[in-house]
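Lab notebook page, bench 4
Experiment: in silico fold of construct C2
Operator: M.H.
Input chain length: 389 residues
Purpose: comparison with the prior construct
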Amino acid sequence: MAPQFKKAVKSQSKARIGIIGPSGAGKTYTALVLASGLGEKIALIDTEHGSASKYADLFSFDTLELATFSPETYIESIQAAAGYDALIIDSLSHAWAGTGGALELVEKFKAKHSGNKFAAWGDITPMQNRMIEAILSSPCHVIVTIRSKMEYIQTTDEKGAKIVKKVGMQPVQRDGLEYEFDIVADMDTDHNFIVSKTRCNTLDGFIVNKPTVAVATTIKAWLDGGAIPEKPPLALVPTIESSKDDFYRQMRDWATVHGYDQGEVKSFTDKRIAAIPEKDRNDKDFWPKMNRDEWIIQFQAKVHDDVAAAHPNDKPTEPPAQQPDPNASTPKQQGKIHAEASRINWDDAALHGWLKDKYKVETTKDLTKKQASECIDNLAKMQPGEPPF
């Protein structure tokens, strides 16, 4: 049948909002404000070690804390939120640059392609695309926060004193991601909410300091101002074959993310499927009920047993007790460094950036005693407002 055009009709839909900014801009709080105006039941995917829960006395929401950040983990978490009115993903940057995220997976899979990073992206890009599709097809209003790379500038405050200020730059995610959202806002450390892209004409050029639920009310009125969308045609209902293929894909993606041989996983999956009675395999309602996690546990047990059988005389050994490093910086030195940084108006981000640039360490705990002593002397010589770089 030849493709046919039809008259465009605005339908009621769900929000797809992106909030971009550096740490301290207020992305999480603002996401909770907007979600509260879009619905009553709110779910929040937390990649920040439970930091969003600090707002639990101000907002009512359920949280899911992630420990690793592969696109597959995000997909499963997004799908688990299907019964909520609004879903906050805080943040989506971890799926790109966090532990198990896209960049780390590419480095991991370069070896599979003889060091060819371009070829490794061929394994990871489809997962990234499925994660974006999971966001766009979610039945919830979806608000994502995205970290931005930071730069430090020297400026003056209202009293004329020199201060160091951090500003957001490039979003930490795949280039062009902002095109997927209906509304994108940049936030700065003064908590200004600056709409940089919108399909809602009312918000075109909109700027507000510390946005309130009134912004969400405007968005909701725009989303609700259309016809109720028709149910999808029956042709879109998954078939037996497409459901089976989707289950295979889930197992394959899991193997890719966790470093298992895809051939072994496929062989295991094939044998398990072959053992399923034919009448069940041909039942359209059977495959959606399959418990992938149960199969994964059984596969891991099989791998463990195979390794144990190949090395019957190996016994597990206890790791040696970790001894404190006598050359490591002391808590007293660490406290002095933070006190000096506070004196010259540096926040934690400025201090950590300076430590990484000068000493190649992430925190004061990573310094040696000698480095910490030198660090204290250097900071003591600096004047308030002096930039870290």
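Observations: DSSP finds 13 helices and nine strands in the chain. The radius of gyration is 26 Å.
Next step: discuss at group meeting.
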